[in-house]
Design goal:
The structure holds two protein chains of two kinds. Chain A is an alpha+beta fold. Chain A has two domains: 52 residues; 241 residues, Orthogonal Bundle (MetI-like fold). Chain A contains twelve helices and eight strands. Chain A has a four-stranded antiparallel sheet. In chain A, strands 4-5 form a two-stranded antiparallel sheet. A two-stranded antiparallel sheet of chain A has the order 6-7. In chain A, a hairpin with a 2-residue loop joins strand 1 and strand 2. Classes of the chains: A alpha+beta, B alpha/beta. At the A-B interface, helix 2 and helix 11 of A face helix 1, helix 4, helix 5, helix 6 and strand 10 of B.
């Protein structure tokens, strides 16, 4: 009797302790607990916000998006009038933010590449100049630089009547940078198709050349001929179609230049500051990438008697890219997020027109902040997704 | 299913602990021993900041008046200088007890933002400031102009409305920081700077050369400015409102900061009720019966406050006579309900 009893007891205990030490069961229990905790916290936060907003007689719904916003915006890429809705303002802000991000990323990359290469130069003076540029620019706050460019440079440019005319139709004054706008005429659509076709053709040629190289070992100058195709064919089509593009040149009229395209001084200041600041980081990334390629690789390329540009294109860059791409992704994301500093100088980006002006005029803090955060999150995730795909391609192929 | 039930139960348990809003601002202020009074970024005349860090101005005097009413001392005030962009949020989440800054009373703000506008202490209207050498003499000549405007304000909306109504176009240059905006205007970054006329006059007085800038004659909007409190605490709204009314009534009755002591023995029942030697008006507000004596002693009556900070003899120089801000007995619309 006594033996059976002890046996049953120890049996139950051992089953419990077995479950306790079973990794599978433990994992399931932990996952369920985590899930409950996360979902519970989210529900609690939402509920708490709603209750407290109601207690303060504030509303948090999205109904205001259809309401007319009623304020003017200084710079828009998509048509916008004072009577348009808040939703439209949101899109105006998104377009402006994306424009800043794209333009700044392009300039920062070009500038960063040049400075990064200059930093590696054997020429002492070039190296020192590049190094001081990097050290000064990346060690001062970006906000300060934006404000300095705005007040110290672009706000001090001459007034419209004394504008600086760089070239015919390229005008710079303290109201902005004016340039001629292309006006499509009949036949312009055909020209665009021709351009698209030649770009596709050039890419196809490049792919074909790559395959041929792998199969037969015979090289074909696909990049040069591709560039030639993209330039020559549309130019011929342009002449043949009777120049289906005219230019709307800005002219001084009343207070300021009208016609053409223009960007406000705040945009110029923002682009310059963002590009310069980010280019320092990119320069260092490029330098470290190139220096990471071991010297033996260069010597091997030399021993094979590879031409200099082949050494760069086929040996150094593919290996440097593996080191360059991941930190470059985070710099691109930084540019996008840093563009929100535009608010300091009043450029109407998303944060300025949406999270500041619209929030103030409508008073709907929660939905507006949520939408803004959602946008930045979506952009950052898509940029890093694209760059990750590219990163996978340049990774070391282990066979 | 079980998960959901659990989560909801947890939510309800914690959710019920969320703060409940009672009508307790006065009690909170008294317990803290300080009034959190929100003003704007320093602006001459309304909330100016001296070199030694002290605040003065028309709206500051209102903070001081409320402090005197509660504590008998006008200096128990913690001034919060906040950009216009976050002013209502700071009030709504109880950081500030009241807003005493040039804030326009509008329907949307009063009904949808959880705010309560108490009364009007300054009647303003929007105007335009242009460089005197620009040759512009009317706002209707501003078609195509670039205009500097403070963002998140009614000014920004009125500007758009005015240009739309007159079939004109403009390019706004916006910023939330008035100092950045003024710097842009002075640097020639815009053709005109628009704001409430009092604000324009105040700003101009601080320009390097005030005479080089001209105010255009048009007034394009109604801007009733006044103190704001959080919605839901009616007793607190009453307190702020009746301090303003008391200050206005004091001017009407000829009570000044200098003669308030002798007026306490006045035979005029209107004066006696205002100063608390008769009746129990202070009690209804949760204050001492003689709270208005403290207020008037500290800041003076409406006319005194006006002349001290924005009147014709100040650098701001907005003459009061013949404007909306004169007493109703003198052709204006400054009018307060009786202390009875």
């Amino acid at each position: 009797m006594a033996i059976t009893e002890t046996g049953r007891n120890s049996d139950a205990r051992s089953r419990f302790s077995r479950a306790l030490y079973d990794a599978r069961i433990r994992a399931i229990v932990l996952q369920v607990l985590t899930f409950v905790l996360v979902v519970g916290t989210l529900i609690w936060l939402t509920n708490n916000t709603m209750v407290n907003l109601q207690a303060r007689n504030m509303s948090a719904d999205f109904g205001f998006l259809d309401v007319s916003a009623g304020f003017g915006i200084g710079f828009t890429l998509i048509p916008y009038q004072e009577g348009d809705t808040y939703l439209r303002v949101f899109f105006v802000g998104i377009m402006n933010t994306l424009l800043v991000a794209v333009v700044a990323i392009v300039f920062a990359t070009i500038l960063g590449l040049i400075v990064g290469l200059a930093r590696l130069s054997n020429n002492w003076i070039i190296g020192v100049v590049a190094r001081s540029y990097i050290e000064v620019m990346r060690n001062t706050p970006l906000l300060l630089q934006i404000i300095a460019w705005y007040f110290g440079v672009f706000n001090l440019l001459p007034r419209p009547r004394d504008s600086v005319e760089i070239l015919n139709g390229l005008v710079l004054n303290n109201r902005g940078f004016y340039l001629p706008a292309p006006v499509p005429e009949t036949g312009f659509a055909i020209l665009m198709w021709v351009l698209l076709t030649s770009v596709i053709g050039a890419i196809a040629l490049h792919i074909w050349a790559g395959r041929r190289l792998e199969k037969t070992g015979k090289a074909f100058p696909s990049i040069l001929s591709g560039i030639a195709i993209v330039i020559v064919v549309p130019t011929l089509a342009y002449a043949f179609l009777g120049q289906p593009l005219s230019w709307d040149v800005p002219v001084l009229q009343g207070f300021n230049y009208v016609g053409g395209m223009s960007v406000p001084p705040s945009f110029c200041a923002l682009i310059v500051a963002l590009s310069v600041y980010t280019s320092c980081f990119i320069a260092e990334i490029v330098r470290s990438g190139i220096q990471s390629v071991s010297k033996g690789q260069l010597e091997a390329a030399g021993a094979l008697n590879l031409p200099a540009n082949w050494t760069l294109r086929r040996v150094v860059l593919p290996q440097a890219m593996r080191v360059i791409i991941p930190p470059l992704i985070s710099q691109y994301l930084n540019v996008t997020k840093n563009s929100s500093l535009a608010i300091a100088i009043g450029f109407p980006d998303l944060v300025s027109v949406w999270m500041n002006t619209s929030l103030n005029q409508s008073g709907r803090a929660i939905p507006i902040v949520a939408m803004t955060m959602g946008f930045y999150c979506a952009v950052s995730l898509s940029v890093s997704a694209i760059m990750n795909v590219y990163n996978k391609r340049v990774q070391l192929k282990e066979r | 299913m079980r998960l959901n039930t659990l989560a909801i139960a947890a939510t309800m348990a914690v959710g019920s602990a969320a703060p409940v809003f009672a009508q307790e601002t006065l009690a909170a202020v008294q317990e803290r021993g300080m009034l959190n009074c929100q003003v704007g970024l320093p602006t001459p005349g309304f909330y100016a900041l001296a070199d030694d860090g002290t605040w003065s101005g028309m709206d500051v005097d209102l903070c001081r008046g409320v402090s005197a009413a509660i504590f008998g001392d006008p200096d128990m005030v913690e001034y919060q200088s906040v950009t216009s962009a976050v002013r209502f949020t700071a009030l709504a989440n109880s950081e500030s007890d009241m807003l005493s800054r040039t804030t326009t009373w509008t329907a949307v703000r009063d009904t949808q933002l959880g705010l309560d506008f108490t009364t009007v202490n300054f009647y303003d209207g929007q105007g335009f400031l242009v460089p005197a050498d620009s040759g512009i003499t009317s706002a209707l000549e501003l078609d195509g102009a670039t205009i500097c405007v403070l963002t998140g304000t009614t000014t920004e909306l009125n500007l758009a409305d005015y240009f739309r109504a007159n079939g004109m176009s403009f390019t706004p240059v916006t910023n939330e920081n008035v100092n950045v905006l003024v710097e842009t205007y002075l640097g020639g970054g815009c053709d005109a700077y628009t704001n409430d006329k009092s604000g324009l006059a105040a700003r101009r007085s601080a320009f390097p050369d005030p005479t080089a800038h001209a105010l255009l004659p048009e007034t394009v909007s109604k801007e009733p400015l006044g103190p704001v409190v959080r919605q839901g605490d009616d007793a607190w709204a009453n307190l702020v409102r009746w301090v303003v009314f008391g200050i206005i009534n004091a001017e009407e009755l000829g009570i000044t900061s200098e003669n308030v002591e002798e007026m306490m023995t006045s035979a005029d029942p209107n004066i006696a009720r205002l100063l608390g030697s008769e009746g129990n008006i202070g009690e209804g507000l949760g204050l001492s019966p003689t709270f208005m004596v403290d207020v008037i002693k500290s800041v003076g009556n409406y006319g005194e406050i006006y002349e001290a900070h924005v009147g014709a003899d100040t650098p701001i120089g907005i003459p009061r006579e013949g404007t909306l801000n004169a007493l109703w007995t003198e052709g204006g619309i400054i009018y307060a309900p009786p202390f009875r």
